[in-house]
Specification:
Layout lengths: L1 H31 L5 H5 L3 H12 L36 H7 L8 E2 L8 E11 L5 E12 L9 H17 L4 E9 L5 E11 L2 E12 L2 E12 L7 H22 L41 H5 L1
Antiparallel strand pairs: 1-2, 2-3, 3-7, 4-5, 5-6, 6-7
């Protein structure tokens, strides 16, 4: 008991007058009532505690809805910049066609499409027969694929960016391709690349050029190959590449012009916000089939020569 009184004296001196009063009150309460009632009868904060406890335990008038997170708004994506495609057989000028397919400039064959506003293609053949000196063969194909924005698949630009990358990758993985080379192109749409390689066939050595460009939400793929047949000289790959790049710029400008952009699509546009990892978000279940059946670089020349 003496030690308890000494602790009380020390406590009084440490806490001061206010602390002493609280201590005396606690001691009186502890002596007068059972321990289980100390908090309810003697706590100086009992009123506040009850109010706080009641606030925490009682549901709100709205059934607790005030503590629930509000429903998030549906995600939105940027609308597609281009809403239509030009006639694929009319995207190149007569002069360009005469340079690329001199004997077939007027023989453009339109590819089949279940939705012309989403996909279009056109192919040309040219065989310049020089008799015993052999022949010069050229084949040209232009394919256009347009994407629409979708809350699930993402923005049209993102989808087009993914498909563009897949087209470039596919061009590098053709069976039998030799001396493959990829060159980025500038001044043609938002992004563009040229893939060139040699392809040996029974008819001769073919020089293949595949140039791909993305302009906003549209991807333009232009395949162009040439070969000297029956002893004719193999065409120069650099010349074919330059011709293909020129044609690609014309096709890109035609896409922009068809959508009222005045052919300004040759300048870089905004990059996609978040590149997709696959081309599964295309307007159809199989975008890689957008070109005509003869558009495959590995099989077209043999089929049409």
């Amino acid at each position: 008991m003496q030690r308890a009184a000494q602790r009380d004296d020390r406590a009084r001196r440490a806490m001061g007058a206010g602390g002493a009063k609280r201590l005396r009150r606690a001691l009186v309460c502890a002596a007068a009532v059972p321990a289980v009632l100390i908090t309810a009868a003697c706590s100086s904060d009992s009123g506040d505690s009850k109010a706080k406890s009641g606030a925490e335990s009682s549901p709100s008038a709205g059934g607790g809805s005030s503590t629930q997170p509000s429903a998030s708004a549906s995600p939105t994506v940027r609308a597609a910049a281009y809403q239509k495609l030009p006639d694929a057989c009319a995207v190149l000028s007569k002069g360009t066609l005469s340079d690329l397919v001199p004997k077939g400039a007027g023989s453009g064959k339109k590819g089949s499409s279940d939705d012309p506003s989403a996909r279009a293609s056109c192919a040309w053949n040219s065989l310049d027969n020089n008799g015993v000196k052999g022949s010069q063969f050229r084949w040209l194909n232009v394919s256009l694929l347009r994407f629409d924005s979708d809350a699930t698949r993402g923005s049209a630009d993102d989808q087009a960016h993914a498909y563009y990358g897949q087209q470039v990758k596919d061009a590098q993985s053709v069976d039998g391709a030799k001396n493959s080379k990829v060159v980025p192109l500038s001044g043609t749409g938002a992004e563009a690349s040229a893939v060139r390689y040699d392809l040996k066939k029974k008819e001769g050595l073919f020089k293949q050029q595949t140039v791909v460009a993305r302009v906003e939400n549209v991807v333009v793929t232009l395949d162009y190959n040439g070969a000297g047949l029956a002893g004719e000289k193999t065409p120069d790959a650099d010349d074919l590449t330059k011709a293909a790049e020129k044609a690609l710029k014309e096709a890109v400008a035609a896409v922009s012009s068809a959508n009222g952009a005045g052919g300004q699509a040759t300048s870089p546009s905004s990059k996609p916000s978040k590149p997709s990892k696959s081309a599964s978000g295309s307007p159809s279940s199989s975008p890689s089939k957008s070109a005509s059946a003869g558009a495959s670089p590995s099989g077209s020349a043999a089929k049409e020569s």
